[in-house]
């Protein structure tokens, strides 16, 4: 069967199934106008509260699409995604496609006759999937679009020292994170808040926004705002590209305030790190998961260490010091500076006493 014929058959089957549901009083789709059949796409913890809120509100989530089970941990046991665990606990059917363009998956998805699809923390989706439901497919993004489009909006906002962020719902289109905006909700970022702490707050705020978005789509009370109308200048847009290992490396030549934001913006995962020269001339990467900043004049080279060798140490940046409060050596558990110095003080080849 050619692709055109296949998609034509999907559309015909979709129409016939919708008609069947509309005229069958006992079917789940009989009250489709007020209770659209929802297919939910998501994988990590961030998506779970939204799925729970939808189900608790009585919306028929007819299927969940999530990532395939993967080996995890030292024993490489197969692990299921948090979204799958939530779906199974609520007896919601689960689809786990490896390739979302596969005809078998597309046929199975169409069989659920979705009126609306919701995407949260999921991979890129082909047009044949997001264009399927009659009411469209919307996404929850953890920033105030059009700012911070991309895969790491929470990390990047904190790393850049932003004082405000939020969540946005928008309809998917062919361009990543550029569809028409439905609703937004703002929240402040605390001056000492980490990316992990912000993630947990936005996860809950986002669940409420998802619910309001569904209600607005049903009632017709939500407007679609093209993102182009919100952009004054393309040069003002801040992006949130995916984080790679080198992106988490600390550059001690930067101002201490920027270093502090950088560290909390990568905490707890993936964790900002810096290589330190060992006594034998080799280097070890030390992750700094939590720290505080001190503004002070000094004559140390960037990355120079000041320590009492017992309980505290601090690292020189531009215009001050970073005081690590939680650190981690490769393959070891996170620990306090005192615990770290008891076992690893010798790793600092060049230090100055406090």
Description of the molecule:
- The structure is a single chain.
- The chain has 354 residues and is an alpha/beta fold.
- The chain folds into 2 domains: 3-236, Formyl transferase, N-terminal domain (Rossmann fold, 3-Layer(aba) Sandwich); 245-353, Methionyl-tRNA Fmet Formyltransferase, Chain A, domain 2 (Roll).
- 28% of the residues lie in helices and 23% in strands.
- The protein has 9 helices and 15 strands.
- The strands form 3 sheets. A 7-stranded mixed beta sheet has the order 5-2-1-6-7-8-9.
- The longest helix has 25 residues, at 195-219.
- It is elongated and about 70 Å long.
- The chain starts with a helix and ends with a strand.
- Residues 1-33 have low confidence and may be disordered.
Key traits:
alpha/beta, Rossmann fold, Methionyl-tRNA Fmet Formyltransferase, Chain A, domain 2, seven-stranded mixed β-sheet, six-stranded mixed β-sheet, 9 helices, 28% helix
* Strands side by side in the biggest sheet: 5-2-1-6-7-8-9
Q: Quickly give the structural class.
A: alpha/beta
The CATH architecture of the largest domain: 3-Layer(aba) Sandwich
Instruction: Provide the number of structural domains.
Output: 2
The portion of residues assigned to helices is 25-40%
Contiguous runs where pLDDT drops below 50 for at least 5 residues: 1-33
The biggest sheet amounts to:
7 strands, mixed
By DSSP, the count of extended strands is: 15
> What is the CATH top level name of the largest domain?
Alpha Beta
What's the CATH topology name of the largest domain? Rossmann fold
Q: Round the mean pLDDT to the nearest integer and report it.
A: 89
- Please give the alpha-carbon distance between the first and last residues: 75 Å
Number of alpha- plus pi-helical segments: 9
Report Rg: 25 Å
What is the helix/strand order?
A: HEHEEEHEHEHEHEEHHEEEEEHE
